[in-house]
Amino acid sequence: MGFEAPLWRALAVFRIAALLYAGSLILRNVDEYRSQAGGWTVLAVMVAWTAYTVYGYADPARRRWPLLAADLAVAAGCLLATAWVERPERIAAGVPTLTMAWVAAPVLAWAVSGGKRRGSAAAAAIGAASIAVHGIAGRGFMPTQATFNGVVLVFLAGFVVGHVAELGIEAEARLARAIELEAATRERERLARRIHDSVLQVLALVQRRGGELGGEAAELGRLAGEQEAALRTLIGSRPRPGERERPGADADADLGALLNAHAGAAVTVSAPAGAVPVPARAAWEIDAAVAAALDNVRRHCPPGTRAWVLLEDDPQAVTVSVRDDGPGMPAGRVAEAEAAGRLGISQSIKGRIRDLGGTVAIVSAPGEGTEIEMTVPRARLTAA
Question: Where do the TM regions start and end (predicted)?
Fold first, then answer.
């Protein structure tokens, strides 16, 4: 149902109640008006518009600018009509406007739909119309104390209701994310139990028997041990932050938690103890670049090659280094690969980081391994 639905229903009740009160005052004072026909006309417009808005706002698809703007315009028009319907001396004496509290309904609608800023803007428009009534009636722009009090109350209503609506919508979104995370965690735990009872036990057995047999079986046992360690790390980690918002999410993700998922028997990940918040889209791109670098290590380096991932976070930039103890690369190897159409480093690593506004430095020499350092300025991460 959502948090907003009860607010819109309460607003519909407010409109009807405010209409009944304003209508009773018009019926009681119509004989005192300068234009009785004008009073009846304003009342008819208020009744018709109340019926239409109660119907219109009931559908979320119609709660958009056309209806919101028309709502505010009709309320302001009925309010301004007081200057022609009422007698100037009665306005000067501080009699209520024709609309009374009914005029606050569009302010509350704007507040519920867009928060305290939009509610305050609508309240400012209604306040200006209230003050203009006195100018049109011939008293200049000097409102009475009652008019001033009404303007302040409408402004406070728009601000407070808008603030409450913002808090409620944010709380609802957090609750939805918490429910999704709980469901994902339960599913992960269920899969972890099944994997532990089957796959992990088989891998552990292969590792132990391979070591006992020696030769090629020992190599198979070593690979099984690495996969067992990697699988244990995977099923033991929490769901990736921002995973359900990908792509283009506005929320932050913990880059350290993403990179920790790559840890295994041959990969060591070092990250700050605390969270490293990065916009989710940028975090996924950096994580994908690291995954591409580790994939290069697995494909192009001998078995047993180790890799180290280091995440550094400071106020100016986020830096991720991927280093291995493999055979290294001769000078110009990356350029040759790009010229030959092999774009793994060029696109999967450099391209991703370049799109984020960062830089990539590659240091390698035969027999000395390879280090890829990816740096993205914090200012560019925020823009991403």
Answer: 7-27, 39-58, 65-85, 91-112, 119-142, 148-169
* Residue closest to 35 by CA, chosen among 99, 97, 78, 82: 82
Pairing of strands 277-279, 307-313: unpaired
d(CA 253, CA 259): 11
Region for 367 from its dihedrals, namely left if φ exceeds 0, alpha if ψ lies in -120 to 50, beta otherwise: left
Strand 267-270, strand 307-313: pairing: parallel
What is the C-alpha separation between 260 and 192, in angstroms, rounded?
Answer: 18
Q: Does domain 250-383 have CATH number 1.20.1560.10?
A: no
Query: What percent of the chain has a predicted confidence (pLDDT) above 90?
Result: 48
How many angstroms separate the CA atoms of 95 and 137, rounded? 13
Query: What are the tens digits of pLDDT across the range 109-150?
Result: 999 999 999 999 999 999 999 988 877 766 554 677 888 888
Separation CA 349–CA 296 (nearest Å): 11
Q: Which residue has the tokens 């960062």?
A: 358
74/112 Cα distance (integer angstroms): 18
Q: Please give the Cα distance from 69 to 75 (Å, whole number).
A: 10
Rounded distance, CA 370 to CA 360, Å? 13
> Is the pTM higher than 0.90?
no
Q: Would you kindly state where each structural domain of the chain is located, as residue ranges? A: 4-174, 250-383
Write the CA distances from 248 to 39, 90, 375, integer angstroms. 54, 59, 21
